[in-house]
Design brief:
CATH architecture: Alpha-Beta Complex
Number of domains: 1
Order of helices and strands: HEEHEHEHEHEH
Strand order of the largest sheet: 1-2-6-3-4-5
Structural class: alpha/beta
CATH topology: Protein-Tyrosine Phosphatase, Chain A
Helix content: 40-55%
């Protein structure tokens, strides 16, 4: 009975989040839908500079996801994404220099994995992999300081490439 209460509460919390997703559309670089190209929605979530923010964003996705995640030299526990990625994410594209930890976490649990040094390369791969009805979610789960001045510059770069 307690398990049913937890499931019910979780379902209600997720529904409340989905209802409030429109609030984020007013915040630049946070779950910002920036285009529909060949039936694929492109979402700029560059403001997701930590694991919790990216987790929240993935949780809200209702279409199959091609996830562009950033890499940094900071060690992170990506295992928290395991069940969510298995359920929501088709393919993962890591961009940046430090991809080993991300590769070992996600490569075996999705349909595809790629590593690209640049955002341009990641976007090209996302464009090649995505199909009508998919969403490309740019939710880096890390800071931008090794490649950009801040998340805003990174998000603007993402939007310029669509």
């Amino acid at each position: 009975m307690e398990q049913n209460k937890v499931k019910s509460l979780k379902a209600r919390m997720l529904e409340a989040r989905k209802k409030n997703i429109n609030l984020f559309s007013d915040i630049g670089h946070r779950l910002e839908s920036v285009g529909l190209k060949n039936g694929v929605e492109w979402i700029n979530d560059s403001k997701a500079t930590d694991i919790d923010s990216s987790y929240y964003s993935l949780e809200l996705m209702e279409k199959p996801v091609i996830w562009i995640i950033g890499a940094s030299d900071v060690q992170r526990d990506y295992s928290v994404f395991d069940k969510l990625v298995r359920y929501k994410v088709k393919k993962v594209i890591c961009f940046g220099s430090y991809e080993t930890q991300i590769k070992y976490t996600f490569a075996g649990i999705t349909e595809g994995y790629a590593h690209k040094e640049t955002l341009e390369g990641a976007m090209l791969t996302a464009s090649e992999w995505s199909k009508d009805g998919d969403v490309v979610l740019f939710s880096p789960a890390c800071s931008s300081f090794d490649l950009y001045d801040d998340y805003k510059q990174r998000g603007e770069h993402f939007k310029s490439l669509i």
